[in-house]
Amino acid sequence: MSLTQEQIAHIARLSRLSLSPEELEKYRTDLSSVVDYVEVLSSVPSESLEGIEPTFPSVLPLRGDVVKEKPDPTRKELLARSPQRVVADQIAIPNIMG
Questions:
Q1: pLDDT, tens digit (0-9, with 9 covering 90-100), for 44-90
Q2: pTM (two decimals)
Q3: CA nearest 34: which of 44, 45, 42?
């Protein structure tokens, strides 16, 4: 099946591409060969193919939800995690007013 220049221009417009007339012709031949190849693949009898199954299970095992009790971090531990400088138990941020 050969695609027309109008079909390629429509595809380009949907893809928000602006193509020159030379590019339209190039893409027309390229896309036509892709469509032709898909038609060839669709004519291959696939009903007799057996044993084409995934080698991994379709449902992966999940880890169980286990709640581990941890004590809440202290204020000092939380402040120690801050990448900013800590002054008088407060996080110092840069001046944003200039």
A1: 887 777 766 767 777 878 888 888 888 889 999 999 999 999 999 89
A2: 0.45
A3: 42
- CATH number assigned to the domain comprising residue 23: 1.10.20.60
Q: Which helix (H) or strand (E) holds 85?
A: strand 85-87
Is 13 inside a domain boundary? yes
- Distance, CA of 75 to CA of 93 (rounded, Å): 18
- Locate 50 and state its tokens: 């057996």
Domain of 30, in residue numbers = 5-42
Non-local (6+) Cβ contacts of 54 within 8 A are none
Q: What is the CA radius of gyration of the chain?
A: 31
Structure tokens at 70: 């941890």
